[in-house]
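## retry 2 of 3
previous attempt timed out at serialization; input unchanged, resubmitting
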Amino acid sequence: MTTRTVSAARSRPTTTTVSATARHRPTPASLLSWLMLVPCLVVFALFIVWPLGKSVSLSLHGSDLFGRPDAFVGLQHYRDMLGSAEFRHILWVTFAFVLLTVIPGVLGGLAVVLLLEQHIKGIRIFRTAFALPFAFSVASASVIFATIYNPAIGLANGLLGRFGVDRIGWLTDPSWALISVSITTVWMSIGYNVLVLSAGIGAIPAEINEAATLDGAGGWRASWHITIPLLGPQLFFLVVISTIQSLQGFGQIKILTPEGGPEQSTKTLVYSIYHTAFANNASDFGAASAQAIVLLVILLVCTAVQFGVLERRVHYK
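## retry succeeded, writing output
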């Protein structure tokens, strides 16, 4: 009798077993959620995973006259690239371009926003004026600045002439070409930076500013000790986004300084990828893909460093 009772008890499924089975059984809601993720996963696979895998594959192969993958060369493209003095110069130009665009762009946008927050008559006109560059395309802005930098009729040399300063070859002098392209890039990005920082200031509770005013911290003192720290998330976001955009900058460099500028003074890594793969029917897709992989690694490292170092100083509300 005891044996039958024990065996019967063992044969019955316990409550824990039933609940575990029910928990692992897919429900209609979970199936629907996975079904709705399918289009996103397909797009991600087609436009991110497959191109990345194709680039890695191309970087490990040579290219024939028509750019088609040829013999397997392994890491030869990477060895040739990292051992090249020209590639080291390209990396230096790339990082210099990032520094010349990210720091002035973010700080310039911050200075403009703080100025716009001052109670000055007619300041709304300047608010609209500083936001206008965001509406310009890269090609339009580059053409405008190509006219400004024109050595004969350009506005830049015209203003210098009024002060008795000699004309500058803004786009033809290797010492000025990268600076000129960087100024154009900062002008294009400052409108977006102003919009983001203005939204951040609008999100700051009015009670904080009122309390600061009652404590005697007004004007620029309040901006330095209250507004700027509270804009930490927006500033961090702009630094990360601006760094990525600068590392991928191409249009203004191509339009203002064809062939990478005088003495390759504006030949960044992205422009080098274009020049290696497409310019003058080069079709060396293997070497260009190797450079693209290096650019991806640089982007990931820069982003990781920024998140590891800068984000610790950001105060989220």
